[in-house]
Amino acid sequence: MRLALAALAAVVALPLVVIVLVLGSTGGGPAAAAPAAPAAVASARAAAPGAPWARALLAAGGWPATGCNTGAIQAWERAEGSTPAWHNPLDTTLREPGSRPVNSVGVQAYPSVQEGLAATVATLRGGPYGPVLSALAAGNDAQAVANAVAASPWGTEPFTAGCA
User: Fold this and answer.
1) How remote is the C-alpha of 15 from its chain's centroid?
2) Residue 116: partners with Cβ closer than 8 Å, 6 or more residues away
3) Cβ neighbours of residue 136 under 8 Å, at least 6 residues apart?
4) Could you tell me which residues are beta bridge partners of residue 101?
5) Which of 2, 41, 87, 135 is 20 to 30 A off residue 11, Cα-Cα?
6) Structure pTM?
7) 48-58: per-residue pLDDT in tens?
8) Which residues contact 73 (CB under 8 A, 6 or more apart)?
9) Whole-Å CA distances, 91 to 34, 85, 155
10) pLDDT tens for residues 4-15?
11) Close Cβ partners of 92 (under 8 Å, ≥ 6 residues apart)
């Protein structure tokens, strides 16, 4: 859990550094980045699926944060079509304290991004997902990850993935 929190904090902080650098280089002064804005941006980024969530998942699971793995996770998120408020972009069904089912299959909504990340890693590591774990460990073929997910009991239909 600590690793997931540290990974999420690092991933969320990166876009803020980029924003500050861009604002600074285009003439935006300190007034362009009010003290309340970073927290609001970080909160919105943490809740939204996409590259930051994908990188946080890879870090939490100990998988290489390659462009291929990031692209595969983002494509998987799109294939699932989850609701960001669920903090569960890959639609795991693992029940955790504070989670609640959101559909007839048992996909869970988690109270926080951190809990959603932890549940996703626990599901992958605790289930029959060896080929998915192997493809993520290799980190060099986004479509191999997608094929392994589609062939697994996760329940995701086949999808196309490319390296980011």
Assistant:
1) 15
2) 86, 87, 88, 89, 92, 110
3) 58, 61, 63, 64, 69, 72, 145
4) 108
5) 135
6) 0.72
7) 567 899 999 99
8) 53, 54, 57, 58, 90, 145
9) 35, 12, 9
10) 444 444 444 433
11) 107, 108, 116, 119, 120, 123
